[in-house]
Design goal:
Length: 556
């Protein structure tokens, strides 16, 4: 092979540590593998290095979880490149976002394997409880990483130890085999983890059980999903945060609802540009990842009915009398966002700046800038006005797991297993009725079909912009419906004349709206369902060039 790639082989083989030819090209930074990992401090340092890398994403310094909804029916990524191509159906085997996720994931796995293979050298110099916890955390992160990989790519190479160069051409294991490994690892890791590591960014027992429940849910293992989620509920270590909006601001970073989050800290030289990517143009952001009109219309009215069925919905005041999570999640026209009047009507040439006293009128960049939000809306999650000075260097942590997901996993698993009892209603209503949301309680006595629709909608309302939608629409087998056709933004100089028809999954259909033709078509999308092609990502071509034992996914 003439070209040297940094690929799976590089990050999972001991070639990184012992092959002098390779190291001549890519010098190893850091301590020698011969002398490293000999005491507790070094074990913790290696573990922190693993945690610092588990973002996986490659776009705009955002984690995979905070960026991925931009490739679904509820979001859009303006920047040309791999993430946009995943959304519009043009991804191929050289997709840069896919390549980056694969490589970053195997870098994390490689670090986990290195720590697990070598930590025995420090056992005599480490307290037993700490040693056990570090080992469990490394196993947890490795299993969590494999979970992301199999849900994105299907079967992948399963590597659980550092490899020699001769061993490095590993074929793909089946998804089921990797899933079994994930489930076993998470079960054993949970047994060795403390109940909580509040505020540290380290994964505790509840994190391992939740990811195990998530993996089970994604693969129709309803009993395991319900059992593990139920165990987290019964632990009573976590609870819902009263203020939904604060969960995604600095005020909520220490919330008891957050089970695990990726940590950012300026003093550690680790910040994120997430805020800038989501923020309005008036707020000095880029508005390059934005929510869809379909998501705005999915949120119910405060009577608990879809907007096409509620008497509370007024097309002339479409954002009033709606589930509060709509305006906690999305900046809508007519609101105040980041201290500015947020108005995206194209005739709104001026707006108010409330960041000064008295407020002043300024040019409305959210109406006149060519790169203002293409949909007319912005995300509000992970936008905090405390970052006004430098939104490109935010310290807002990126939540990976929170307690609301646990409740929704539990409810969905019980519903799909048709084990419907009061606990299902309790879980759903706990999410719907947190004090700042206070939506009507779900009445008892509903059918499995009705409850399935409710829990799917709840996942949409509650978890939008948190990286779940890509996987949800695929496991529910609705991706070919929602990812085909026009991706809509608002009407540039008006509002919808009537509510669209909302289906059982919360997806709007605009065919009956009289002025549908005036809606902005942000992008035309396609979904290739031949051999279920677009249900998975392609195996990166550079990986297959390096490792001919890797089979490609169908259709690529």
């Amino acid at each position: 092979m003439k070209k040297l790639y940094i690929t799976f082989i590089a990050v999972c083989s001991i070639v990184l540590y012992s092959c002098s030819d390779y190291l001549d090209k890519y010098p190893l930074e850091g301590p020698s593998s011969e002398t490293y990992l000999t005491n507790e401090t070094e074990l913790l340092s290696a573990l922190n290095g693993i945690y610092s890398m588990n973002t996986y994403g490659t776009a705009d310094e955002m984690t995979l979880a905070t960026a991925l909804d931009a490739a679904t029916d509820i979001g859009y990524n303006r920047n040309a490149g791999g993430l946009q191509q995943l959304g519009n159906g043009n991804a191929d085997t050289n997709n840069d976002y896919v390549n980056g996720v694969w490589l970053n994931a195997y870098k994390v796995i490689g670090r986990c394997n290195y720590l697990l293979d070598n930590m025995h050298k420090a056992e005599a110099n480490t307290s037993p409880d700490t040693y056990k916890a570090i080992r469990a955390e490394a196993r947890f992160v490795r299993a969590y990483t494999y979970h992301y990989l199999i849900e994105s790519f299907g079967g992948v190479p399963l590597v659980t130890t550092m490899l020699s160069l001769d061993e490095s051409l590993v074929p793909r294991s089946s998804k089921e085999d990797v899933l079994n490994f994930i489930m076993d690892e998470l079960k054993e890791a949970a047994a060795d983890l403390p109940d909580d590591y509040k505020g540290t960014g380290r994964a505790a027992k509840s994190a391992a059980l939740t990811i195990r429940a998530r993996a089970a849910l994604y693969n129709s293992k309803w009993d395991i999903a319900a059992q593990d989620a139920g165990t987290v509920i019964a632990m009573k270590t976590h609870s819902l945060h009263n203020n939904f909006e604060d969960l995604f601001k600095y005020a909520g970073q220490e919330s008891n609802e957050i089970i695990w989050a990726h940590q950012y800290l300026t003093s550690a030289k680790k910040t994120t540009s997430t805020t800038a990517n989501l923020l309005s143009r008036n707020g000095k952001g880029y508005s390059n990842k934005v929510p869809s009109q379909s998501l705005v219309d999915a949120y119910q009215c405060t009577d608990g009915k879809d907007i096409d069925k509620s008497l509370l919905y007024d097309p002339e005041k479409p954002f009033e009398n709606r589930d509060p999570r709509l305006t906690y999640t999305i900046a809508v026209p007519g609101s105040v966002f980041f201290g500015y009047q947020f108005e995206t009507h194209k005739d709104s040439l001026k707006c108010w700046n409330y960041n000064v006293n008295p407020a002043v009128r300024i040019d409305n960049q959210d109406g006149i800038n060519a790169y203002a939000s293409f949909t007319g809306y912005c995300w509000k999650k992970y936008v905090d006005i405390s970052d006004k000075g430098n939104p490109n260097a935010s310290q807002l942590n990126a939540t990976i797991i929170r307690y609301a997901e646990v409740l929704l996993i539990y409810a969905e698993a019980k519903i799909e297993a048709n084990q419907i009892d009061q606990s299902v209603y309790d879980a759903l209503n706990e999410v719907r009725q947190r004090p700042t949301v206070d939506m009507p309680a779900i009445p008892t006595g509903l059918s499995q079909t009705a409850l399935r629709a409710i829990v799917r909608k709840e996942r949409l309302y509650e978890l939008a912009m948190e990286g779940f939608r890509w996987y949800d629409i695929r496991r529910w087998k609705i991706a070919e419906k929602v990812m085909n056709g026009s991706f809509y933004g608002r009407i540039p100089r008006g509002l919808l004349s009537s509510a669209p028809v909302i289906d059982e999954n919360g997806v709007p259909n605009y065919n009956s709206v009289a002025n549908k033709a005036e809606m902005r078509i942000v992008e035309q999308r396609k979904f290739n369902n031949t051999n279920s092609r677009d249900y998975l990502w392609p195996i990166p071509e550079r990986e297959r060039t390096t490792n001919p034992n890797l089979e490609q996914n169908p259709g690529y």
